[in-house]
């Protein structure tokens, strides 16, 4: 999840604990670390925007959003070959006339879900192989001293520092995510993506990082 203050509230965390829901934070300023969710958000945002701008009579965007989500759930996914609604509920939402539809039972549904998973993993492996061809990330270790990119380039003021630090890497969560002690109270919000880290080389001059 994104690291908004509300998500860090004790009340929200207690609710998740009660419902046995695991809360996993994404790295700061790195939406691509939760790419599947962000891609869906982008698709829905574009549809909502088009719908709002094409209608003469203004309606609440929440109503339009609900319609867009419902339509999205009834559209066949190019990777899985099935609609989200069918995979979740077993509901056939295809446009094929009822008399031509093949009746499916529970076993068919479970088999289709397994097929959808297989196709998804195959697509993921293919995309990963394409991305990894030119990917040469710096590998950090616990104890390394690093600087951190200061916020999003689009939101950063002209005279603000380009990077902050130096800080020490506390934990390596994965090859891409690192936990760094930045002095903030909440350590849940101290996860950073490798693309936001700059290794400290020797005694860097103060002006070099500004």
UniProtKB/TrEMBL annotation:
Residue stretches making up the Integrase catalytic domain: 1-92
MF terms in GO: nucleic acid binding
Q: Name one GO biological process term.
A: DNA integration
Return the SUPFAM superfamilies for the record: Ribonuclease H-like
What InterPro entries does the entry give? Answer: Integrase_cat-core, Retrovirus_Pol_polyprotein, RNaseH-like_sf, RNaseH_sf
PROSITE patterns tied to this protein:
INTEGRASE (PS50994)
Q: Which domain of life is it from?
A: Eukaryota
**Family matches, as PANTHER family:** PROTEIN CBG26694, PROTEIN NYNRIN-LIKE
**UniProt-recorded name of the protein:** Integrase catalytic domain-containing protein
Q: Which organism is it from?
A: Odynerus spinipes
């Amino acid at each position: 999840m994104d690291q908004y203050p509300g998500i860090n509230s004790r009340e929200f965390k207690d609710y998740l604990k009660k419902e046995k829901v695991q809360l996993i934070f994404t790295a700061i300023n790195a939406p691509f670390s939760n790419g599947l969710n962000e891609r869906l958000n982008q698709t829905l945002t574009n549809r909502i925007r088009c719908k709002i701008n094409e209608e003469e009579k203004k309606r609440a965007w929440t109503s339009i959003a609900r319609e867009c989500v419902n339509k999205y759930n009834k559209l066949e996914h190019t990777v899985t070959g099935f609609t989200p609604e069918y995979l979740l509920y077993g509901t056939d939402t295809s446009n094929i006339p009822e008399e031509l539809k093949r009746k499916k039972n529970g076993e068919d549904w479970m088999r289709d879900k397994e097929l959808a998973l297989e196709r998804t993993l195959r697509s993921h492996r293919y995309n990963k192989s394409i991305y990894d061809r030119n990917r040469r990330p710096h590998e950090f270790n616990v104890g390394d001293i690093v600087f951190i990119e200061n916020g999003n380039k689009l939101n950063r003021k002209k005279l603000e520092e380009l990077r902050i630090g130096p800080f020490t890497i506390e934990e390596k969560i994965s090859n891409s995510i690192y936990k760094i002690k930045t002095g903030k109270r909440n350590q849940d919000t101290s996860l950073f993506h490798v693309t936001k880290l700059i290794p400290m080389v020797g005694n860097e001059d103060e002006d070099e990082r500004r």
